[in-house]
Write a structure and sequence with these properties.
This protein has eight helices and eight strands; from the N terminus they run E-H-E-H-E-H-E-H-E-E-H-E-H-E-H-H. The chain is an alpha/beta fold. It has an eight-stranded parallel beta sheet. The structure holds D-xylitol-5-phosphate and zinc ion. The site of D-xylitol-5-phosphate (DX5) has 22 residues, from strand 2, strand 8 and helix 7.
């Protein structure tokens, strides 16, 4: 089993001390930082936008994984690219022309990702595999940190793993987002995930850096 990439979600960070939080993550074993952008329309919550992505970019050498939970993401792809994202994920459910939007992300010189809600059938992604670098499987309903992992997500991860392996796209990352902690990280990796997002389990722990290392070592 390959060591997973850990992507701490800044949604659970202390925004009053954002510099310090990013500094702490720079010194951790996390390879990616996960940034959750919410518009109050696609999801019933509003988080942050360009200035925060830019601020994190100025301070971090890590790979910035930007998860757009917004309607019509195609209108903002270029600005999130310029803000310093390394990878931009858009939601399947928010894109009328998903293939075109993924192309826009790649044309902007960034890696592309597709996120899917817990009810969206995994097999719909089969037709866009050549245009994506990552599939982001939501294991909670998007919008908030600190929710419980939906158990059926494990089957969805295995199904995605099988689909991409069978189609010859094994290098596509499978990222899982929502409710991940030390108690279930092993099962999520076993099912086929390569990137684990973790918000509350990292920032809510006494020693976030140690929690990141433990998540990375989970089996
Ligand atoms: C939820 C976000 C997640 C969130 C995860 O909509 O996409 O990235 O921050 O938080 P936890 O790990 O607390 O479930
Ligand atoms: Zn997310």
């Amino acid at each position: 089993m390959k060591t997973p990439i850990i992507a701490p979600s800044l949604l659970s960070a202390n925004f009053g001390l954002l510099n310090g939080e990013v500094e702490m993550l720079e010194l951790s074993q996390a390879e990616w930082l996960h940034l959750d952008v919410m518009d109050g329309r696609f999801v019933p919550n509003i988080s942050f936008g360009f200035p925060v992505v830019e601020a994190v970019r100025r301070q971090s050498q890590k790979f910035l994984d930007v998860h757009l939970m917004i309607e019509q993401p195609e209108l903002y792809v270029d600005r999130f690219a310029k803000a310093g994202s390394d990878l931009i994920s858009v939601h399947w459910e928010a894109c009328r022309h998903l293939h075109r939007t993924l192309q826009m992300i790649r044309d902007a010189g960034k890696k592309s990702g597709v996120a899917i809600n817990p009810h969206t059938p995994v097999k719909g992604l089969r037709s866009i595999l050549s245009s994506t670098d990552l599939i982001l499987i939501m294991s909670v309903n998007p919008g908030f940190g600190g929710q419980r992992f939906i158990p059926e997500s494990l089957e969805r991860i295995s199904e995605t793993r099988k689909m991409i392996d069978d189609a010859g796209y094994s290098n596509i990352h499978i990222e899982v987002d929502g409710g991940i902690g030390l108690e279930n990280a092993g099962a999520v990796i076993q099912a086929g995930a390569t990137v684990l997002v973790a918000g509350s389990s990292v920032f809510g722990s006494a020693n976030p850096q140690e929690t990141i290392s433990k998540l990375r070592a989970a089996k």
